[in-house]
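Per reviewer request, we include the raw input and output of the structure prediction for the construct analysed in the revised manuscript.
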Amino acid sequence: MRRIIIKGVLAAVIAGFCFATPLRAQNREKAWELYPYLGYVKFASKVGLDDSPSLGLNFAYHWTKRHEVEFGFGGTSTNDTASGKFSADLITARVNYVYNIFLHRRDKIVAFVTAGAGVLDFSTFGFTTNPKLVGDEQDFMYNYGVGVRFFGGERAGLRLDARKVDYSKKGGGGTQNYLEVTLGVTLVLGGA
């Protein structure tokens, strides 16, 4: 828990430095974007896992000001809600399409919608009476969400987004889902 608080304070300090410079437009064609984030995962009740903090890294390529493709890696670690005797680690790798919507005439505030697909690695371990609950599993996942970027510097800003992630369990486990809300610093590199 202490590490999460330290990372949150560090992100806030970096964001403060980003907003200390004059405001300028950030979304550019042919630019790369880097987005390290801290987040919170809220699992659906039928999943049977405790809600937990998450962290990850997204990077994107803007082929126009409005269109970009984003690659993301993230993860979280949690426990089961029933007994707390086994742990679960979720690691995701995904590709998303992002459509930008400019809310300010100088492009300082950019909302976006996103959708994509990827792979979710679900690892469980611990003590349980059901050995089928322990092990590794890779599942197909798809996600969709919305977010907003607040640009405060020539190359950086603050980003907030929320995504719903759906995935199908192997072996007939049905579709399960969770909601992830993230906050981080977005860094824009290069561009025309």
